[in-house]
Amino acid sequence: MKLSHLNRALLTSALTWLTWTAHAETVGSVDTAFKLIGPDHKVVVEAYDDPRVNGVTCYVSRAKTGGISGGLGLAEDKAEASIACRQVGPISFPGPMKQQEEVFNQSLSILFKKLRIVRMVDQKRNALVYLTYSDKLIDGSPKNSVTAVAVDHSTPIPLK
Length: 160
Fold this sequence. Notes:
It contains two helices and eight strands, in the order αβββαβββββ. It is an alpha+beta fold. The strands form two sheets. The chain has a four-stranded antiparallel sheet, covered by helices on one side. About 11% of the residues have low confidence.
């Protein structure tokens, strides 16, 4: 069976999304406010392996709303997150990469609010820059966090 160019692109996109979803791991959390009914408010730390860069993991900390609405998945989490990406093994690239690409997004509310992670390539310094921010259908947040992973110059980052 032959896949059309569009179908191949859609399949690649879906597999990338599934890879991020499959590798998201909760590393831990701390309670920030006690709630009598439902889970407490907390800060959660999650690990995400970059699906297109072997050997890089991003750690994201973010607020998670508790209480009854948080327990039911109806609460809107705050638009604040911090990110730290690190080399956790030998860095390699399965193929050419885009100059800038969204590598992960996660819903923060039932109504169109998302936490996003974008990877950018700093070719001059041979580094990968990761930016996290949140957006909303009508009004996003300027709050953001950035981190970078230096790649040894003996391993050039392949660009499309």
